[in-house]
């Protein structure tokens, strides 16, 4: 059977388009940033991918979980960031499913095939020369190659226009809902950070004399700070040596029991805009630079993006929202999303970036800044609701997390948090939202690209292994970011926050300082010896202190914070040690929660003596970074009320 010529022509045109794409594969792209240990095929061999490497679209590239690759096109100077994991040609990784020529061509072929099947048949006469017999056959209308080119261009343009029209229509419909009466809601009381029983650090019975003397001095400092008010009155508590509340000989194999297993929080995909946000060349403003956590960002924005809210009435707010459908706001939103990509910003960092932008351009904490923030945030795919108290406009942010110490409103089975300040009185809230909106996640699944702002040097030394000593500088911009990060939990279970902190990759600049030094020292050691060195480094190199003495409340640290602040407690040490063991030794770990205490256990994948937990037919040997001077396999606490906290099995490997 002869293939229908129109189908053949459509497929032939699509093939030409794909060939033209292939020709572009020779363009040169230069690597400007790499995270997570990316690789590529260089002259038939796998090689690490570093800054300055030159690639083509055909180059096979590997991106690990939580990794990314940033390249710049030499011809156009455009920068692209790639995060799709696994091996593939760079061209495939750069493809955007919404608007690449490749995708447009596929969509077009589908539409042509569908259209051809619906085209009415017409009669055509063919004359047989030898017999001069006229025959009738059913054929379909034919089209030239140029016709197909024009049709494809029209199809592509219509697809783009459909994206624009759809988003603008959603804004118009949203504005109509805003004009309707808002409902009054009373806020829920902020949930305080759960308080934990304070457990005094414990000295291992077999700790050496130097460690015991140092630990005694540490205890005196802890109690002195804790009882400073009592000391002024002369009735301070006298610290007493704390013995291990159970007795198990070093090296003895003892299986410990646990009551619960807490799985890791599910990995959530970052929200995306409802429809494609396209760059508008014809209405381009100049770039405006602004800072977020010491990091330069830039967005095209100008006077034509300014507006005034006469009041926070429903109609005034709706009138302003309708202005956001104008094309000058497309580039503003487009650039914000590009900055989110370029810096690998988490949801929380992106919110902070939008807050910094709108406050900078529209005025600190003005109603105009709040409405612009709501526009950018919602059009980026996030779920929010507008609220007002008669004079001031608020943006309420939906999250499936419980954000501690934040006022929130419970609306239609969702919690909406007031992120900037708390409130006791009622608010008038517009319940209107956008399709496919997603809640704010507090996960940080990739190392964020914040500008480097080195702190003063700090040297941390193990007391058992004196040559296991390292000097580092933290990135103050990361510390400032974490300072804004709200304590939270999943399913209102406060233990979930520790897994979130432990699953957050550390700052790459800090890793690049510390990890090569550590790898050099650990080279040639067995897994057991390597973990033992890391354990003692955390036990004796860092100074213990209660959170309540420092912060006035419980506060968990991300890994970088324990290396920056002068004090840390048991949960901070366990989170830091979990990073070091996974990143440097490549072993899986679990966090071990005792009421009032957090430790860690390691799957050595070989028989290691000591106290341990069995989970999923795997032996996790206890490593307690607050059991001062203890070795691998020694637990400080009786196993009562234990919960094993599982960490993400896909945690990045360096």
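-> sequence recovered:
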């Amino acid at each position: 059977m002869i293939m229908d010529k129109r189908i053949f022509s459509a497929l032939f045109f699509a093939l030409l388009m794909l060939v033209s794409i292939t020709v572009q594969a020779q363009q040169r792209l230069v690597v400007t940033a790499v995270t997570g240990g990316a690789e590529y095929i260089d002259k038939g061999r796998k090689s690490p991918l570093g800054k300055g490497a030159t690639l083509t679209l055909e180059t096979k590239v590997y991106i690990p979980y939580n990794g990314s690759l940033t390249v710049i096109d030499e011809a156009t100077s455009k920068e692209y960031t790639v995060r799709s994991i696994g091996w593939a040609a760079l061209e495939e990784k750069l493809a955007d499913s919404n608007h690449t020529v490749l995708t447009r061509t596929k969509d077009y072929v589908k539409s042509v095939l569908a259209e051809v099947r619906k085209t009415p048949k017409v009669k055509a006469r063919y004359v047989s020369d030898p017999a001069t017999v006229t025959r009738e056959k059913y054929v379909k209308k034919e089209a030239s190659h140029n016709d197909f080119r024009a049709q494809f261009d029209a199809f592509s343009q219509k697809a783009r226009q459909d994206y624009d029209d759809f988003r603008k229509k959603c804004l118009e419909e949203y504005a109509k809902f805003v004009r309707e009466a808002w409902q009054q809601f009373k806020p829920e009381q902020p949930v305080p950070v759960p308080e934990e029983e304070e457990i005094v650090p414990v000295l291992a019975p077999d700790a050496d004399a130097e460690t015991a003397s140092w630990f005694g001095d540490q205890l005196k400092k802890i109690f002195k700070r804790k009882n400073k008010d009592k000391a002024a009155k002369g009735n301070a508590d006298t610290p007493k040596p704390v013995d291990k509340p159970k007795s198990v000989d070093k090296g003895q194999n003892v299986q410990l029991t646990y009551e619960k297993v807490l799985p890791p929080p599910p990995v959530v995909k970052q929200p995306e805009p409802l429809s494609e946000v396209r760059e508008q060349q014809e209405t381009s403003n100049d770039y405006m630079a602004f800072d977020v956590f010491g990091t330069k960002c830039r967005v095209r924005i100008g006077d034509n993006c300014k507006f005034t809210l006469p009041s926070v009435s429903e109609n005034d707010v709706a009138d302003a929202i309708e202005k956001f459908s104008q094309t000058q706001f497309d580039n503003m939103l487009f650039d914000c999303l590009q900055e989110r990509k370029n810096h690998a910003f988490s949801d929380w960092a992106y919110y902070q970036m939008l807050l910094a932008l709108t406050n900078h351009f529209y005025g600190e904490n003005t109603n105009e800044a709040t409405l612009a923030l709501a526009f950018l945030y919602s059009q980026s795919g996030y779920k929010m609701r507008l609220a007002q108290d008669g004079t001031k406009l608020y943006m309420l942010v939906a999250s499936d997390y419980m954000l501690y110490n934040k006022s929130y409103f419970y609306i239609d089975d969702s919690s909406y948090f007031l992120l900037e300040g708390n409130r006791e009185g009622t608010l008038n809230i517009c319940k209107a939202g956008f399709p496919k909106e997603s809640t704010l996640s507090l996960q940080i699944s990739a190392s964020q690209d914040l500008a480097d702002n080195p702190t003063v040097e700090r040297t941390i030394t193990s007391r058992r292994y004196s040559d296991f000593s390292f000097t580092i500088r933290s990135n103050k911009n990361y510390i400032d970011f974490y300072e804004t990060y709200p304590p939270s939990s999943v399913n209102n279970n406060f233990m979930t926050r520790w897994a979130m902190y432990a699953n957050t990759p550390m700052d790459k600049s800090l890793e690049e300082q510390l990890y090569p030094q550590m790898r050099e020292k650990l080279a040639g050691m067995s897994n057991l010896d390597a973990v033992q060195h890391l354990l003692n480094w955390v036990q004796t190199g860092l100074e213990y202190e209660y959170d309540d003495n420092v912060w006035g409340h419980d506060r968990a640290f991300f890994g970088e914070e324990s290396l920056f602040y002068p004090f840390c407690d048991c949960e901070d040490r366990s989170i830091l040690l979990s990073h070091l063991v996974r990143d440097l030794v490549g072993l899986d770990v679990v966090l071990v929660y005792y009421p009032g205490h957090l430790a860690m256990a390691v799957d050595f994948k070989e028989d290691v003596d000591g106290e341990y937990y069995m989970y999923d037919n795997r032996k996790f040997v206890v490593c307690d970074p607050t059991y001062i001077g203890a070795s691998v396999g020694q637990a400080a606490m009786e196993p009562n009320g234990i919960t094993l906290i599982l960490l993400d099995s896909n945690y990045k490997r360096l």
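The first strand starts at residue 29 and ends at 35.
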